Amino acid sequence: MQKELTLVEHLGELRGRIIICLAALGVSSIASFPFASVLLWILKLPADGLIKKLVFFSPQEAFNIHMQVAVLCGWFISMPVILYQLWAFISPAIIEERARRYIAFFVSFGFITFFGGGLFAYFVLIPPALKFLLSFGGPELEPVISAQKYIAFLATIILGCGMVFQMPVLSLILTKLRIINARILRSKYKYAINN
Question: In whole numbers, what is the pLDDT of the chain averaged over residues?
């Protein structure tokens, strides 16, 4: 049986787990930095035929762009560590002993859904979104797109979709914590459809 932790001890544990997550993100971002040029080329593919060339406007901006790309890649590489730390933090609150053993399932399912959300954004959402948004320029306006703004746009959509695809994982956690159940989800489905 695990001993009850005080609020201060919980906060100390949370702080430690956040530090581990940030360290994993930092290490994976640094490891991704040498491949930033290749990753930038991959990230530019959805804009083929729409944006001729990405530009930068200040001496440090090219370096910042490579850093942004490396951090975006770092999120994907470090996601299993982040998910493990999340599960390790919340698993003591799960009542069922059997459910605590699902760590491999939680981490792998969470990573697959996050990665799937990123791929969905990259292949399905971003190309038509770029086409739609750039169509407002018309013949009067020629797009001169800053690479930094373009990468920020992509990162927002890719990471946002990755997080949205975590909803099944969040539902699983909340169910195991007995905060929600099938009856509650059924009674609230109208709000999800109408909003």
Answer: 88
